[in-house]
Each structure stands twice: as C-alpha cells, then as structure tokens.
Write a structure and sequence with these properties.
Two copies of one chain form a homodimer. Chain A has five helices and two strands; from the N terminus they run ααααββα.
C-alpha cells in the first residue's frame, strides 16, 4: 500500500478511535456482530448520533456492515485495528532500541569509571 | 486511574495520532529529543502550524517539553503511547478469544459430522 494511502487510512483510524463511544462500539464488536439498534441500546443518545458514529467507524475501515440482511449487522475489521497497532509498535521499537543503546553506553562508562 | 480520566486521556491521545504530521513528530521523537525548530525543519509549514501540532501532542501527554533550557526540547512520553497500545491490544484480545472459541466449536461440529 502506498505511503499516502496508508497515511490517509491511519488518519481516519486514529481519529475514529479518538472518541470514547466509538472505542466502546469497536470493543463491543470484538465480542461479535451487532445491529445498529443493538449497538445504540446502552447509550443515552439519539439513533441518529449513534448512526453518525457508526458511519465514521465504517469510513475508517474499522468496521464493515453486512449487505444482505435488512438489519445490516456491523462487524469488526481486525486488520484495520492491526494497522493502528503496528504503527504504535513501530514507534515504540525505535524508542526502546534507543533506550537499549543508551543503557549499553552508560554501562560501558560505569565499567570504565570502576577500573 | 479513574475510567473517566482514562477515557479523556485516550480521546486526546488517539485524536492527536489522527494526523500524519503529528504521528511523524512522535516517530521522530522516538529517536531522541528535538527542539521545535529542529522538528519543524522538514515540513513545508509555518512555525506557527508546527507549534500548534506540538501543543496538541503536549496536551495529550504523548510528548513533554523540557523546562530549563531556553529551547525547551520536546521528548516522547512512552507511557502515553503504551496506554493507546494497551487499549488496542485489549480489543484485539476479545476478538481473538472469540475466534478461538468459534474454531473449537467448528472443529467439534466437523468431528461429529465425520463420525
């Protein structure tokens, strides 16, 4: 996947995750498919507001909706979640490699001072 | 940490990560501290625009700035990145446990049919 498309996708995915209701919906869909009506049930929110959140999640690729049944159940798209995870892991790796190098360096300095 | 504070923090962290320039800054700070001027260097953007991105990152807790030197270098706050990672991993765990259960169930059905 091209860098620009990947950037666009990650912009949409992280922005979609930047709202607690949408994170909650993602977490609940991890436990299984659900209709918009079922998803809306626990929230003190209009169906319209919930539908709007679901559209944001759908556009980001975090969830998809069935085409055939009238209720069009929502399901999680785990590969999209995986893309966000990979980005964070990659940044963490850079950081921890630097910390490892720093530790090695400090240990060497310590060793030299101990002589 | 309370659930509400945690929700607020994750809202801010994921929203901050929902922009490719800010993700780029986070990734670059993984390799070491940098001043705002150094961070701004590669972008075709005003210093004001870069400073704005840095303020969003600072408010989210993803980065912090030194207090003493005049340049106030920016540094990554890895625990904040870790909080975002944990949230995604948790959602993924729910999903993969369900997949495991589904597989076990399908294997049992298959076994019964084979008899």
């Amino acid at each position: 996947m091209g860098r620009v498309i990947e950037d666009e996708r990650l912009d949409a995915v992280f922005t979609a995750l930047g709202d607690r209701t949408r994170r909650d919906i993602v977490a609940r869909l991890g436990a299984g498919e659900a209709t918009v009506k079922e998803l809306a049930e626990p929230y003190d929110m209009t169906m319209q507001a919930v539908s709007q959140h679901i559209r944001v999640l759908e556009r980001s690729g975090l969830i998809s909706r069935g085409r055939h049944r009238q209720t069009r159940p929502c399901r999680l798209e785990p590969e999209t979640l995986e893309a966000a995870l990979s980005w964070i892991e990659e940044s963490r790796r850079t950081w921890s490699e630097r910390m490892d190098r720093l530790e090695t360096h400090l240990a060497r300095v310590q060793e030299r001072d101990d002589r």
